[in-house]
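retry 2 of 3: previous attempt timed out while embedding inosinic acid. Reduced batch size to 1 and resubmitted. Inputs unchanged:
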Amino acid sequence: MSEPRVSTLISAADLAAKIRDLGARIAADHPGQSIHLLGVLKGSFIFMADLARAIPAEVSCDFLRVASYKGAHSTGEVRFEMDLTEPITGRIAILVEDIIDTGATMDSLLRVLRARNPEKLKVCSLLHKPSRTKVKVPIDYLGFTVPDRFVVGYGLDYDGHFRNLPYVGVVEGM
Ligand code: IMP
Ligand code: MG
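retry 2 succeeded.
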């Protein structure tokens, strides 16, 4: 089988420019405060690495991993495959996600993490597919809206592939 072709949807330069803006906004919205970034693995790792460097403030990082839902019946609580390593009580926490598709993952995550009493819990997602929304979640910081296509690159994968592409693209034929 030959390698599937990926065509560019969002270039590396457009990603970089947007992340500079997001970082500046995040710092401006929390003057003098330290920002605790919570990366949702694996998809957010490249975005989070760039975002963290784009925030001109004190930043700390933690990570979690949740089981991904297969199929449409995604109403249950989220299952942690890996939890945060530190409490978020009293902190300014920002969940960093690669993409919000149906919203089910983020909705469950927000409910679980709000119960830990952070001072603030915000959402920063690189991508959003509004046409697929099943559960509406607040997105405080959004990079780009994308059409209802399967996207890969810049952390996002198709079956484990393409995470290392420096741009966001669509797999041809999908
Ligand atoms: P949701 O719970 O439906 O919002 O799904 C969110 C998760 O599904 C994301 O964190 C991604 O890991 C995965 N996902 C959804 N759409 C895509 C896509 O187009 N490409 C790669 N991963 C996706
Ligand atoms: Mg994800």
